[in-house]
Amino acid sequence: MANSRRHAPGEDGLRAVDLVTDHLEKPSLDDRTYRVIRLPNQIEVLLVHDPQTDKASAAMDVNVGNFSDEDDMPGMAHAVEHLLFMGTKKYPTENDYSQYLAAHSGSGNAWTASTSTNYHFELSAKPSNDEEPTAANPSPLLGALDRFAQFFVEPLFLESALDRELQAVDSENKKNLQSDQWRLHQLEKALANPKHPYYHFSTGNLETLKTLPESRGINIRDKFIEFYEKHYSANLMKLCVLGREPLDVLESWVSEYFSVIKNKALKPGRWEGEVPWGKDQLGVQCFAKPVMDSRELDLSFPFLDEDLLFETLPGRYLSHLIGHEGPGSVMAYIKSMGWANGLTAGAYPICPGTPGVFGCQIRLTKEGLKNYKDVVKAVFQYIALLREAGPKQWIFDEQKGMADVDFKFKQKSQASRFTSRVTNEMQQPLPREWLLSGLRVFRKYDAKLIKQALDCLRPDNFRMSVVSQEFPGKWEHKEKWYGTEYTVQPISQDFMEEIKKAAATSAKDRIPKLYLPHKNQFIPTKLEVEKKEVKEPALAPRIVRNDELVRTWYKKDDTFWVPKANLIVSCKSPIVYAKAANAVKARLFTDLVKDALEEYSYDAELAGLQYSVSLDSRGLFIEVSGYNDKLAVLLEQVLITVRDLEIREDRFAIIKERLTRGYRNWELQQPWTQIGDVTGWLISEHDYVVEELEAELPTITADDVRLFRKELLSQMHVELYVHGNLYKEDSLKLTDMLESTLKPRVLPRAQWPIQRSLIFPPGSNYIWKKTLKDAANVNHCIEYWLYVGDKADRQIRAKTLLLNQVMHEPSFDQLRTKEQLGYIVYSGIRPGATTYGIRFIIQSEKTAPFLETRIEGFLESMVKIIDSMSETEFENHKRSLIVKRLETPKNLDQETSKHWNQIHSEYYDFESAQQDAAHIKALTKAELLEFYNHYVHPSSPHRAKLAVYFIAQAKSDVSTKQISELVSTLGLSSDASAQAATDLQARLSAAGHDMDKEIEGLRQYLLHELKVSEDKIEAATEAWKKLHKDKIEANGVVKDADPPSSNGTTPQIIEDVRNFKAGLAATGGARPAKDLSEYEELDSKL
Ligand SMILES: [Zn+2]
């Protein structure tokens, strides 16, 4: 704890570094070593030596965020975050950093919050010779730290990147515009005290960051540099570096690269003068209209500032009780009344110096919406109950006990998630010894503080909102940034009187169903782990039972040594997917099971035991996971519920209504999240899309589900996996419990369902079009998919994986960074059940056929990138990919899912990573090129393509064709024209339908960016006015260019899915990579 002076070697001899501490409280299984130091410029650094990690990582948290934005330029902090990546004095090439990371199996990201901006990356932890890294033989971390540090030393804020990155910010904002989460959060902020920075619009858009400031004559680049200069200071930075190198090596690197960051000795932000909600903002109710068909009731109370209360955490005590879902809780009561589908409660901070908030959100049913006042009163009655009962030490002890166990057995998470999170937490005033344990363990019971916290939950100290599409039916205002419709008004006097009465109830006039929870029976008491030294952890589980009815896979944990286990059961039956109506009945059934188990399983969940019941095309899944001590108890209850559940009409109606909305809301989601399902449906032999399921739902009754359950459970084949801190006998006992509870008949082997994908012959060229349901959405989307072949073919796999590795960074750089087609630009591998393919997804204001031409343009250029790649670069890519493939699971859950994926896919290919690595290693550049020219190059007659087009209904944007015509009036070179077309399209779209704004945007751009002469500007303006008129006259319908075809095939629009599928052959089903008898370890005694 004492600060001693240390010395670390630097380039200029010796440089002083303070040791803050090297004794961090850590989980009992944690094999990392930690050291906290402070550099002479006051950057605090957490160094982490992890001898096992595959990935090295670093993160920097800067104590400034959107709360420091200037009032008239919202989004500044966020824009600076985007711009910081783009070139530094030492490494001036824009994508140098991302290229370096990509070449070493890595990636980076950043985020901006209210008082923090956080930058982080991770990459391969070992040097290219695969030996342990040392100072003399460093891992790629060294080069990454050098590049990373430069962001904070001398960033360039490149003029050339400025517009593009602001487009990226704008696109990010557009992506959020239809998201209720963003909309409602911003509404809450917009209704806060305008003098408090909570009121800010945090993301920013092109208008706030460019158009408006420039119209006021502001040079925005200067403004961003000014923000950086004013707020980025070494003493506000927290750094974490994690690697395989010894701590002393990490320390010397950090000292060398980060000590030069300027310390401006700035004061950390504190906001004390104003509160987010003053008298005027309390005692009000807000009614807001969501995009999705959802209903929510939201109560928030200004709360304590818990910044310094990390030892006592009174907010957690209250959220445990108010958020409880077991018997006696608010949730159990309002659910029994048919009013609610869910409830969450908790305290969260706003910023240092400002009181936090205690919030309670309730998802309402239709009935609940009608009775929302009674729901509010029930919450206040429960608060009265808590006040009357007073703080209870045993409740705190139970919470503390569980938190201690969880921390003790906490397993590692992804390297960059760890560094990003810990640097953010380092901004809190925690003792440095508690950086890892700080908010995860409870330390002191403080009844007085709990009472103080409870005193914040008063009728005169709260505000509420009701979110619903139908109630009250009319909304008076529109929120400025997202356009959310709302009304806000004081809570009526009558209603307030009722609330006050509820908050003052005593035991005799309280709802009898409200009481404190009982002691939790699920808290694990046996936490022993038998640790047996093993030479090499086993790659595959074993089969311990295999007969007509059941196949049980089992592996005793030999790596993580936690007192936990996972059990996954797959009950296979062909009837689940025989028709869409069955899939819906099965879904309703699993929803009803979960609904019935809610109260019972809540205690288990608190005690670290989870379960789930879900579906796929071959049957029903049951999963139970967590501390193994009481796992069997929970499994038994789940199985009994599956077997005996009484399907009540009232619950059925609520669940059915919820599912109806679920399907409808699914189609209102962001286009890019929907598109994968449609492609999946088109490439598999047998699948359903949401429209098909939605069409079946109205006619299904509770009786249908009762009958279906009976049929489903009567006959099946069961395959399960037991993994963790359990013995072989335990796995057999759990299997017996399954068998004796469900008592199914054998499903003969010949009837086990088989999954097949479709085969796309050479030259296939298909297009599927769909108009999106959300009338207000302006984003189109494309999934462009190229069929490659059999998923089990080792050569195909290796080549596809390597191509994806080589193509990933260039495709993002071209389509997202350079062309700014949209915020969502993604390329990757898209497997079917039995096939492999490569896909691109782009969500954009630009139309799908245009996006397709851009993807094809990129694919044409890609061949040159591969061709001109040096052997060293090519070998680096191979190495990088092999490292990724051989990455080991970080915790028990990850290993379980890795194995389960192999069991569930029926390939049982437990060595697939090793096999892939060996096949990748052998590949030559010539082979990759040949593969590319055959399967991917747009001019190849052999390639097989499917493109899914999602068409947005709202056309606030302009077509590519119109833009091209406009650009042709400017007489630019072809390169400049392409750039101008991209820029203008985004600019004009940002102006919406407003003609004056469009013209203004156009003039500004031509004048400042392209430096076009006045007469040409006049001509272009006239041309635009005419086009604008045409657009209006055409009633918003803009014709697109035809989709491209450069290999001589004609695109076929899929009109009839049955005909389309009937025209294609299907693959064989999945086959085990090895004979399953090789895994058998059956008990000879039985
Ligand atoms: Zn961003």
UniProtKB/TrEMBL annotation:
Designated name of the protein: Metalloenzyme, LuxS/M16 peptidase-like protein
An example Gene Ontology molecular-function term: metal ion binding
GO BP terms: peptide catabolic process; proteolysis involved in protein catabolic process
Peptidase M16 N-terminal domain residues: 45-195
Domain Coenzyme PQQ synthesis protein F-like C-terminal lobe residue range list: 802-900
Residue intervals of the Peptidase M16 C-terminal domain: 221-400
Family annotation (InterPro entries): Metalloenz_LuxS/M16, Pept_M16_N, Peptidase_M16, Peptidase_M16_C, Peptidase_M16_M, PqqF-like_C_4
Domain Peptidase M16 middle/third: 407-694
